[in-house]
Specification:
Structural class: mainly alpha
Keywords: ATP synthesis, Cell membrane, CF(0), Coiled coil, Hydrogen ion transport, Hydrolase, Ion transport, Membrane, Transmembrane, Transmembrane helix, Transport
GO molecular function, one term: proton-transporting ATP synthase activity, rotational mechanism
Distance between the termini: 172 Å
Number of helices: 2
Shape: rod-shaped
Helix content: over 70%
Number of domains: 1
Coiled coil: 73-123
Mean pLDDT: 86
Organism: Castellaniella defragrans (strain DSM 12143 / CCUG 39792 / 65Phen)
Subcellular location: Cell membrane; Endomembrane system
Low-confidence stretches: none
Number of strands: 0
Largest sheet: none
């Protein structure tokens, strides 16, 4: 066998194989690599977008937490203020009720003292009449001396 002819046929087979590879094998292979490269790039872009969205969401959550804390503190302060107001109002109402009860008690006591005085005056008048009756040993006419007894009762 001739070495030149073998080299020539090997060259022809090599070029046919190169042409066949470049015509039918290489384009789908490069297309698959480009598609894969594009998917990887899209995945990386989506990951970056996800990171940015996560950062924005965390910022919104932080703002919402701060707003909730502020609102919570405001509500607590308002509740404390309202509780203090209710306590003060109850204290004022209790003081007013106390004053009313004391005034009523004083008025009742004054009426009782007045009734007791009237009762004592009447009893003293009866006792005075009985004492005068015993001293004089005679019956005293109550009708005749009613005016005298009323004056005596008024003086006592």
């Amino acid at each position: 066998m001739n070495l030149n002819a073998t080299l020539f046929f090997q060259m022809i087979v090599f070029f046919v194989l190169g042409w066949f590879t470049m015509k039918f094998i290489w384009p789908p292979l490069t297309k698959a690599m480009d598609d894969r490269r594009q998917k990887i790039a899209d995945g990386l872009a989506a990951a970056e977008k996800g990171k940015a969205d996560l950062a924005q969401a965390q910022a919104r959550v932080s703002l919402m937490e701060a707003a909730a804390k502020t609102e919570n503190h405001a509500r607590l302060a308002e509740a404390e203020k309202q509780a203090t107001s209710l306590i003060d109002q109850a204290r004022r109402e209790a003081e007013a009720e106390k004053a009313r009860i004391l005034a009523q008690a004083r008025q009742d006591a004054a009426q009782e003292v007045q009734r007791a005085r009237e009762t004592l005056r009447a009893e003293v008048a009866v006792l005075a009449v009985k004492g005068a009756e015993q001293i004089l040993r005679r019956e005293v006419d109550a009708k005749a001396h009613a005016e005298l007894l009323d004056q005596l009762q008024a003086q006592l």
